[in-house]
Design goal:
20% strand; alpha/beta; 4-stranded parallel β-sheet; single chain; 9 helices; 312 residues
Length: 312
């Protein structure tokens, strides 16, 4: 096992291929936006499981701590230490481009996961959810819940993050075509954070003449923050999240959140690891973009959620 200075080895195993030939040992760095978010903790666990399944891989985990300079420094450190490849979810689609271009120029294959990056044509592949379709699933659910129209509050994600941009686009794709019936009475970022989801929701509700019909949020943390506020104010407002976190699934099951969107983060993680390892060991070139299609999870189909087994 190789240890890289400043990086933390979290999974390593020897592997033997068919015929007794040992697989090429690899060192792969992973970088997720913030391991303070349960969603990314789950993705990291699945990346580790994917690496262990392939065998012969030293997986090196880094945490961007939701700071582009930190994630940039981690990528630069990985390049200096000559990792074989990088799997990364860029904090910002634009701001992380220079660091990832540096990796590509150094001959380090890069696979982006969940969040894409702009302006780096040499990226090996992007594996993620089709966040536009996920946002459209939220929009269609609003239409289903309120066929006669609705006043909508839209809690947007972190500015510059590709999922935030795409999910917002998807919601608008569905509802903008019926603007006479579906009106966005407030749209504001809460930066994917629960506490901000609560404070932003509280401020929005205080500024409206009457409560909205529905709140749509770009992730579950913001949705759960909004739910806390509506419950404190004894308001019965359907809230639709995104990510299908176990806590959100429990809330859907128990009548809190109206729905969440399942984007299969474990499938993304294992898929990204497969793409990179198959390229490094077998020179198998992947498709440039591999997208999973998200689905809306309500009480009626909660069994389709990836992380349902984690509910207590």
């Amino acid at each position: 096992m190789r240890f890289l200075k400043g990086l933390v080895p979290v999974a390593a195993a020897a592997a033997v291929m068919s015929g007794g030939v040992q697989a090429q040992d690899l060192t792969i760095a992973t970088s997720l936006p913030s391991l303070g978010f349960p969603f990314f903790v789950h993705m990291q666990k699945e990346l580790a499981a994917g690496a262990e399944a392939h065998g012969g891989i030293t997986l090196l985990e880094t945490d961007g701590q939701n700071q582009t300079p930190k994630q940039t420094a981690d990528v630069e450190a990985a390049i200096i230490q000559s990792v074989d490849g990088i799997v990364i979810s860029p904090i910002d689609a634009v701001a992380m481009a220079p660091a990832l271009q540096q990796a590509v120029d150094a001959g380090v294959p890069v696979v982006t996961i969940d969040r894409a990056v702009e302006g780096v044509p040499g990226i090996l592949a992007h594996v993620g959810a089709d966040n536009v379709k996920g946002g459209e699933a939220q929009g269609r659910l609003i239409v289903e819940l309120f066929p006669d129209g609705a006043n909508v509050v839209n809690l947007q994600g972190q500015p510059g993050a590709s999922p935030a941009i795409d999910r917002n686009k998807g919601v608008h794709n569905v509802l903008d075509g019926m603007a006479d019936k579906y009106k966005f009475v407030a749209e504001q970022t809460a930066n994917f954070a629960r506490e901000e989801g609560a404070t932003v929701t509280e401020a929005i509700l205080a500024g409206l003449d009457s409560p909205p019909d529905v709140i749509v949020a770009a992730n579950d943390d913001m949705a759960l923050g909004a739910l806390q506020v509506t419950q404190e104010q004894n308001l019965d407002i359907p809230i639709i999240g995104f990510d299908a976190l176990p806590e959100a699934l429990g809330s859907v099951r128990d009548g809190g959140l109206a729905a969440t969107i399942e984007q299969f983060p474990g499938g993304q993680s294992r898929g990204a690891m497969d793409v990179l390892v198959n390229y490094l060991r077998d020179n198998k070139k992947p498709e440039k973009v591999i997208l999973l299609t998200p689905i809306a999870i309500t009480k009626d189909n909660i069994d389709a959620a990836e992380r349902l087994g984690e509910l207590e």
